[in-house]
């Protein structure tokens, strides 16, 4: 990171990350607390041969990025809860059509329009299950401005590599926070492009079965003429209701992520080298308060550490079991009522595990004191 | 070295930008900075604040926990913060009831900015005052940030900065006399 650091906002770092990853098409409907992403894209994309499109709503926004991506251009949109709800239908189509695209969800308080300017982490389950039908998706959650950038690049890389929509599950805290950040030089961070067909246009099928479960994707408008449908389809991409085809297709949607699980799932640990008795399991902005609390707990004489789930979907099951099983107490801070991540951890570690939830859902941030309270330290 | 600053008031008073300018000045001095903001749904009016943490170390928790300096520009925010221990508290004396105690510094910041020709320079006057009164950032760093950021409008901002500095130095003289 050799460039001069500047005081960069998380949302700005997301826009920069997208451009760095090669995105050249943004379609969206600005909404707090994600609007700066659209703003940055409207200024920057036209100058580098890209397109910024202001849409009539979020349904159309995903329609536009799916279409643009199929022409071979890396495409994305940015929104928050109310817009993310509207995007679900076309997001389902993108999953079924195996169309690479990135959706940034800078989470804010809900339900519905909620507290428009306040942070939340309550879309965890909506990201996974917001659409009907069996499906698998990738979601990443940044805890800093640097991660806003790097995980946006990773979101595009994963999306391109596995032909799957990727959600960047940011939140108002990281989206609006400013920190020192130096933009990496080109080439410093890996950028991945989708596999292109090596067969002739006559032989090309958009869902050709592959050993690694990822079929090469040609571009609309090229000599490759092909069809994508939201209905069940075989390798040729036309609607097909055979039971055998349906089994193959649903397997395909899941297996392409299952077999590449280790490449997709990313976690980070802090102060975890000495098998601490207290383990904070976190994602997104609340990682920061947990790290502060772990340091405070150690100062008070109790060994504590943090496991940060950088990837939240697919869920980092192996890592949670590895780092959580030997802990005496697990603490899961989340800006939601229902403990959406805590429930997943409970499922893995069992209902007898001492899992303490710290939930705040009033728009205020979780403080180190909130955490110390559940630990009685 | 770790310093925490809160700029609090209502939407439209330039508090977020003020925090960004302060943070950028600290970065020029090689510091780590985290700037956060909290605001309501209105573009103008309603509670708004900007927090800046400046440190030689990595800044882990992103919110201010022990403010060193607080600027309050509404009665609401003064009421929120007036009992903060060990903090220097600046306030607009035209907008907020007079406060007694050595930690309080009340001046008609808004009026002074309007007299300079632009109410928007209020945040910069306050930053000049903070810089002169404390060692959080140097005046030179603030000048550099203002010059880079405002281009043609830098002159007015530099004048506003100086106004804040003069205000603080007149205060220091007064203290020296008493």
Key words describing this protein structure:
heterodimer; A: 377 residues; alpha/beta; Rossmann fold; 2 domains; seven-stranded mixed sheet; five-stranded mixed sheet; B: 178 residues; Pyruvate-ferredoxin Oxidoreductase, domain 3; six-stranded mixed sheet; 6 helices; 6 strands; 43% helix
Q: Care to describe what's here?
A:
- The complex is a heterodimer of chains A (377) and B (178).
- By secondary structure, chain A is α/β, with parallel strands linked by helices.
- Chain A has two domains: 264 residues, Thiamin diphosphate (ThDP)-binding fold, Pyr/PP domains (Rossmann fold, 3-Layer(aba) Sandwich); 110 residues, Rossmann fold.
- Chain A contains 13 helices and 14 strands.
- In chain A, the strands form three sheets. A seven-stranded mixed β-sheet of chain A has the order 3-2-4-5-7-6-12, with helices on both faces.
- In chain A, helix 1 crosses helix 2 and helix 3 packs parallel to helix 4.
- The longest helix of chain B has 24 residues.
- Chain B starts with a strand and ends with a helix.
- The chains are: A alpha/beta (377), B alpha/beta (178).
- At the A-B interface, strand 8 and helix 10 of A face helix 1 and strand 2 of B.
For the biggest β-sheet of chain B, the strand order reads 2-3-1-4-5-6
How many distinct beta strands of chain A?
A: 14
Using only C-alpha atoms, the radius of gyration of chain A works out to 21 Å
CATH topology of the largest domain in chain A: Rossmann fold
CATH class of chain B reads Alpha Beta
Give the N-terminus to C-terminus distance of chain A in angstroms.
39 Å
Strand content of chain A: 15-25%
Outline the low-pLDDT stretches of chain A: none
Shape of chain A: globular
Q: Can you tell me the number of structural domains of chain A?
A: 2
